[in-house]
Amino acid sequence: MLDVNLKTPKDVRLDIAAKTRQRRLALNISQQELADRSGISLGSVKRFETSGLISLASLLEIALVLGSLHDFEAIFSKTNNPESLFTPEPKMRLRSGRKKK
What we know:
The protein is mainly α. It contains 4 helices and no strands.
């Protein structure tokens, strides 16, 4: 059954950007300070916070500075990953009656 609350990748991207901004502000870190501490350009930090667009490497650097790197460890873990819309049905393996020689 299709989940009516299913988010698009864009929705998730924007949610991550918003949460990152909230975390940065809660830690009283400016965008410039985040850029300096993470080694990412100020423009990239600003673009990320408004559009959610950033490289994975840069996102992980930001997460490290904000003390949230551990949050990425659960990505794609089997216990945290609900059924995907694109997961193929498991194939049934049929055993043949032939014996190997």
